[in-house]
Fold each of these.
Amino acid sequence: MISSIRGTKDILPEEIPVWHFVEKKLHEVSNLFGFSEIRLPIFEKTEVFSRTIGADTDLVNKEMYTFFDKGGDSITLRPEMTASVVRAVIQNNLLQQSSILRIWYLGPLFRYERPQKGRLRQFHQYGAELIGTNEPEADAEIILLAKEIFDKLGINDYNIIINTLGNTFSRMRYKEILVEYLRNHIAKLSPESQVRFGKNPLRILDSKDPRDLEIVSECPRILNYLDKPSLEHYEKTKKILEKNGITFIENPFLVRGLDYYSHTVFEFQSPYLGAQNSFGGGGRYNELFEQFNYPKQVPAIGFALGIERIIIILEEQGLKLDNYYPTAYVATTKPEYLDMVVEITQLLRKNNISAIYELQKRSLKAQLKEANRQKVLFTIIIGDEEYQNGFVTLKNMKDGTQRTLTLNDTLTYIQNYQGQI
Ligand code: HAM
């Protein structure tokens, strides 16, 4: 038996209705907010990610699926989509057509992480990017879009955590102050944070290791080191959120795992998820275009949601959706009548009635059992009389009643019945 790769998940037919439910809401809300979909390759040149996400992040260091293809090029299965979107925007000159871009996407991503509840090696994200503006209204717009999605999905129990990382100047200044502070406590930090100290000290701030928490709780706060434009941007963003009825929690230690962020960062956290409590997050990335050698700064902000985590929340909340079942099952008393069975099944389908038929030449009893298992509303039975006279027996599987009808009347009967339920 060859099994699937650890950390990947087969999404089985019985799980599909909830995926479709989520996808439908994502389409609806994206349209409502005037965002257009983009579909991008699932692999890219490695540098698309290594150059932008940050050489010292866990994502680039430990989690990327990188390989050399047969031509000797270094290729990476996308671990996130923001960098790919920026690459595509530049390559396809999208900013020449419109100076503001509203883009959304949905698709699989790959991260070599330790699998656990809500953490997979292949997972799916929905994301939205608002590119071309530094206005705080755009920061709020992205969070409002996320909230609308949660409202439409019926997810109400979650927290919005926000913070600011300021502009590059403020962040650099704060980094120095932070390093100075942490240097005095380095021996007490967790081994992981000791490594981070030299490489990516800001990431120590959102460590969950108890050894780090106390030290971090006493550390200098970035808010005290922001320059005026950074502080104003943050204050304005919060004001717009408040005005639009968004409740949020400020956490000065929220940093997030990707290095391209500046100014606003945020996460959506749910009590239903356990250790991996964040089911979405994002932030501003005003310097990302320049990392692709784009000649000018293009301010942008976006976010992404983990679909598997959204589905865990919906299931924990008790959402149960019916599978899709065909309306009719066409059965026959004799395998010789299969030609008519196929013809009638096709006729039903042409009239928008979903239908399947017996393919194993089983007894009528077995076929009726199968029809019940398939949860169809009607079984159409072709017997000797029916085959010869052009009539069929229509059995209502709910109440067991049977009637003999012409084919035309059968179609009308089923269509009327469907119209009533
Ligand atoms: P991220 O926080 O790395 O952000 O991922 C966003 C969401 O993807 C997470 O909140 C989580 O729900 C889901 N996720 C991440 N890793 C896994 C995993 N191993 N298994 C299951 N779900 C996972 C980004 O990727 C940014 N590109 C978001 C963004 C868009 N920032 C600006 N624009």
Note: Residues 391 and 407 are 6 Å apart (CA to CA).
Amino acid sequence: RKKIISMVFRKLPGVSASGMGLRLSQKFVFLLFLSGLVTLCFGALFFLPDSVRLKRIFLSKTESQPVTKALEDMTLSRSKTDSASKDEKVTSSSNQGANTDTSFDYNKFKKCLLKPPLGIEHGKPSDPQTLQRREKVKEMMKFAWDNYKSFAWGRNELRPLTRNGHIGNMFGGLRGASIVDSLDTLYIMGLMDEYNDAKEWVETSLDLNSNGEASLFEVNIRYVGGLLSAYYLTGEEMFKRKVMVLGEKLLPAFNTPTGIPRGVINLGSGTSWSWGWASAGSSILAEFGTLHLEFVHLSELSNNDIYTEKVMNIRKLLNKIEKPHGLYPNFLSPVSGNWVQHHVSIGGLGDSFYEYLIKSYLMSDKTDEEAKKMYYSALEAIEANLVQKSPGGLTYMAEWRGGILDHKMGHLACFSGGMVVIGADDGAPEKRQHYLDLAAEITHTCHESYTTKLGPEAFRFDGGAEATATRLSDRYYILRPEVIESYMYMWRLTHDPKYREWGWEAVEALEQHCRVEAGFSGIRDVYAQTVSHDNMQQSFFLSETLKYLYLLFSDDDLLPLEDWVFNTEAHPLPVVRKSCLQGEGGTHDKTTSE
Ligand code: DMJ
């Protein structure tokens, strides 16, 4: 420091070499220099990309808003129960004195459902064969769960061959992904002992004070989605308290120049950044575009608009930005708000963004006209640019790279049969039949890719290939749900029995190829004669694959589509009936409620 000061003085003209005057001016100049330095340092910190905490302290009142409102709610609901866990107690102490009752009225919510609330008897099929198939799926769930409980309890996933747990690095130190992902599946299947074990674990052991690097998308779809649906299905306040604490921890990810969140967030510090593999620090369409359903419900439960504002801001930007041929590329800069690459896909990196547009419309009780408009225009652009017919007559969705088509479809893209069919009714009347046909054709293509009754990660339509994986690296199957998901929606909306038959083929194949002594495992090559297991029971197998199979063999009154939309991890979230919730409540025949 001395060196710097003397350098500064040496350059200052007019400073006398001796006496009082010199000491005073030296002090003055020194103070001036020091204050300049401090200002510079603070300024620089604000412009660092991850200066989230500083911004929180010094800027915007809206950043602190969720804390107060969400906690008001929690404080009030906590007075009804004394089982709040450590993480909730810590935050509640900062909210002494909140006294406005903003808590969500669960009973009113139940009255606003069109079909009566849940009971485990719902959906029981009268036909004995279907019932037997449904029981089989329930047995598979119990088997997967029991093994997870025996060998991996509290870890994120089960490794069924080595009989141990897997933690991974997607959830920022959060544990028990398989437990949170399974809550609603166990509940709707009536596996009540298992559900109660899961609930107790969430209550006593789900520690939200973790400090690791999490995928915003994965934590949102699995943990936030799982806790929200557990709350809505059961009315257990504990799930609501947990999800509000977690929801708030995700908010700093939106502190970017555009409000488009980055992909990775440290749940402890709130610092966020982009995936190293995402080009030029971009955010991924399927990640920032798959928050809407959960965030709207976080606002509903907390009576705080901040969550809805965050996702509506994303939508505003997407609406404004120019889209090549009406398409949405997969990479967007959270700094400039511009597309980074022109790669468009209905599979990985793009998929659930489109899904959430139509589901936002449906979940809003068909009032969200903007989501509706965006969905049907996106679908039109997809049809014009991506939908193809193979020489063998199979309809598929190719990928688009700056105008050049890659004739490949991922397993992930097979959800789109289900997406197109749930949106068929609300499109232009003259398009209704067309959408039903398109959904059926895509689902048929995906079924064709299941040549060994399970299908590869990606299949191609070039060089003579017809829905087959031509590369060894594309031949794995990791217990993914998308094809079965489309069977379930196609069944619900057409009641064509072939979808139940196709679902049953998948059950038999899962039993034959993926069931091992201690759980279910993915396989490395769906075409190989001798099976090679990947030693992983993914949490989405319990959350999605088995749930969709169970629903496929259930009657339509189990989670009726008039009342529920499924998030992209198959967690059911209720349709928000604003006028009913704000009024007297009660849309269904009260004699059948409870
Ligand atoms: C799930 O986590 C979700 O379905 C997500 O949208 C895509 N990937 C997996 C299942 O394949």
Note: The pocket of 1-deoxymannojirimycin is lined by residues 221, 352, 412, 480-481, 540, 544, 568-569 (CB under 6 Å).
